[in-house]
Amino acid sequence: MAQSKATDFAGKMAELESLVTQLEAGDLPLEESLKAFENGIRLIRDCQTRLSSAEQKVSQLLEQSGQLNEAPLSSHTLTE
Q1: Architecture category of domain 9-79 in CATH
Q2: Within 13 Å and on the Cβ side, how many CA atoms surround 63?
């Protein structure tokens, strides 16, 4: 298993899903399974970093009296 080819979040997630499918099938030799697992861990960490960075950048903009005010994005906002 080589280093991740995907550069965007969606591509990395697709690559991770592919690795999971391969590992669940159980058809890979032990050495390849370990490499796939290690690559999957790298992909997960990268995706978590990207999500954390995006979470820090995202904020909810509220318009009050014609002005935009920045407020932190809450999990409550995501479910509405």
Answers
A1: Orthogonal Bundle (1.10)
A2: 1
Q: List all residues 6 or more positions away from 9 whose beta carbon is below 8 Å from its beta carbon.
A: 47, 50, 51
Where exactly are the structural domains of the chain?
9-79
Does residue 14 carry a pLDDT above 90?
A: yes
Instruction: Write the burial class of residue 16 (CB in 10 Å: 0-12 exposed, 13-18 middle, 19+ buried).
Output: buried
Please state whether the predicted TM-score (pTM) of the whole model is above 0.90: no
CA distance 33 to 21: 11
Amino acid symbol at 32? E
Contact 16, 43 (CB under 8 A): yes
Give the residue-averaged pLDDT of 21-49.
95
